[in-house]
Design brief:
It contains 14 helices and 23 strands. It is of the alpha/beta class and 482 residues long. It folds into three domains: 212 residues, FAD/NAD(P)-binding domain (3-Layer(bba) Sandwich); 118 residues, FAD/NAD(P)-binding domain; 121 residues, Enolase-like, domain 1. The strands form five sheets. Strands 1, 2, 3, 4, 5, 6, 7 and 18 form an eight-stranded mixed beta sheet that branches. Strands 9-16-10-11-12 form a five-stranded parallel beta sheet. It has a five-stranded antiparallel beta sheet with strand order 19-20-23-22-21, with helices on both faces. Strand 10, helix 6 and strand 11 form a beta-alpha-beta unit. Helix 1 packs parallel to helix 8, helix 3 packs across helix 5 and helix 3 crosses helix 6. Belongs to the class-I pyridine nucleotide-disulfide oxidoreductase family.
């Protein structure tokens, strides 16, 4: 190995080229700082290459499959339709490659030095980078750790990436599971279950509670939709063991009542716990503080306990979301450049690209009841939305929660077509401390999915036009579309 004689001087050295790392690099370069970005695998990180993008390719394809009956209903004859998983894999590779090349081009255009190699801290102002047979030393004014996290299998389950899968291998399957058993409690479970059911797999879901962290009303609607689509739900269950058989996988679980049940399928997907990727960084010799869970502790500017070293993304714990990493990366770079910038995760949205999609921000109803003396809840079923009838996607609802005393909106929760795009209105509203009147006053395009949000706000005070009066709703429980 050849060791560089002199340390290269940089304003900013970033370890990790995922969403947090490359966004931080570009933002720092925009302020004229000299930046070196070190990535041991591919730019874009897990999100672009293994996680967010591959999974959304699958959910996009699943949505198109789910729309086929409606396409024929409106007069478009398709003839024989079949699903080819191999072609979807090719498309996934194409999309990932194009997006990764885009990140590479952006880094080049911003004059960011990108190094493929393994990095570790040598001192509080030095990082060593091993790249093939070369070992270089970089002296930095500031460093950003953006090394992400890895998924760790539960003690009782051995992920073999063939029949027992995690988030990295589920989207690399070459054959469609006959019966996919899905185990976990997060949004990834929902996306996997809905996607593979749309492709034609039999799907069973095993979960500890069944809410998946969602507002209870949204979770109940999700369960109703699953029942209609013949997704079997094993709620309040714990998996005790997963056993490989000759041509199947057996999952033994214990129910809430203590009963032992065995479910057999062709494949099992497990949503695993995350562990920070810090073992090879050498941060312990620097004394950087970590949380009880082993993640790097940061403040509202993404600073670690060493103020010139920052950390962003999954390596800091909390929700494993790219949107959080991107924001933290930009804030870290802006802070390094002397700008006033900070992170506030209060209104970090939850997004699920399921069928139909789910989106929420702010407090759930249960959380609001604990924190506020009196609340109002307005809910509007998507079936009452005229545009939903046009596009043939009438499942779901929009739910709004507000504080009675101040009329301030506390939470926005949606399951239904357009939810992912529409939630931005809720996020902006909460960030600006919107009152009920602020959400009711603007114009909402007609016909559009947006009107469901308006009617949910109006439902806070029983003013939703396309909901039956309360005394009738108790017996009829339905909305009138327009």
């Amino acid at each position: 190995m050849v060791v560089g004689e002199l340390a290269h001087e940089r304003d900013v050295v970033i370890i990790g080229g995922g969403p947090g790392g490359y966004n931080a690099a570009i933002r720092a370069a925009q302020f004229g700082l000299s930046v070196t970005l070190i990535e041991k695998e591919e730019l874009g990180g897990v999100c672009l290459n293994k996680g967010c993008i591959p999974s959304k390719v699958f959910t996009h394809a699943a949505q198109k499959m789910a729309e086929l009956p409606h396409i024929e209903e409106i007069g478009i004859e398709l003839g024989h339709v079949s699903f080819q998983l191999g072609k979807l894999q090719n498309y996934k590779t194409k999309v990932v490659t194009q997006l990764r090349q885009g990140v590479e081009a952006l880094c080049k255009a911003n004059r960011i030095e990108v190094i493929r190699g393994k990095a570790s801290f040598l001192a509080e102002d030095r990082i060593g980078v091993e790249s093939g047979e070369v070992f270089d030393v970089y002296r930095f004014r500031h460093a950003i750790i953006a090394t992400g996290a890895s998924y760790v299998s539960p003690p009782s389950i051995n992920i073999d990436h063939e029949r027992i899968l995690n988030v990295y291998s589920i989207y690399g399957l070459e054959t469609l599971p006959n019966h996919l058993i899905v185990y976990g409690n997060d949004y990834i479970v929902i996306e996997v279950a809905m996607s593979f059911r749309a492709f034609g797999s039999q799907v069973s879901v095993i979960t500890d509670d069944g809410t998946f962290g969602l507002d209870e009303t949204v979770a109940n609607e999700l369960q109703r939709i699953w029942k209609k689509r013949k997704i079997k739900l094993y709620q309040h269950c714990k998996v005790e063991s997963v056993t490989l058989l000759l041509d199947a996988v057996a999952v033994t679980l214990k129910t809430k009542t203590g009963e032992t049940v065995t479910v057999e399928g062709s494949h099992v997907f497990v949503a695993c716990e995350a562990k920070a990727n810090i073992d090879e960084l050498g941060i312990d010799r620097l004394g950087i503080q970590r949380t009880e869970q082993g993640f790097i502790e940061i403040n509202h500017q993404a600073r670690t306990s060493l103020p010139h070293i920052f950390a962003v993304g999954d390596v800091t714990g909390g929700p494993m979301l790219a949107v959080k990493a991107v924001k933290q990366g930009k804030v870290a770079a802006e802070t390094i450049a002397g700008k006033q910038s900070e992170i506030d995760l209060t209104f970090l949205p939850t997004i699920v690209h399921s069928i139909p999609p789910i989106a929420s921000v702010g407090l759930t109803e249960d959380e609001a009841r604990v924190q506020y003396e009196d609340i109002r809840v307005g809910s509007f079923p998507i079936t009452g939305n005229g545009y939903a009838s046009i596009i043939g996607q009438k499942d779901g609802l929009v739910k709004i929660i507000s504080d009675v005393k101040q009329d301030v909106i506390l939470g926005v929760h949606m399951i239904g077509a357009g939810a992912v795009d529409l939630i931005s209105s809720g996020i902006i509203g909460l960030e600006m401390a919107a009152r009920e009147e602020d959400m009711k006053f603007p114009f909402y395009p007609h016909p559009s999915s947006n009107e469901s949000l308006l009617e949910a706000v109006e439902a806070l005070r029983a003013e939703a036009v396309h909901l039956l009066p309360a005394k009738q709703k108790k017996s009829e429980k339905k909305a009138v579309s327009h």
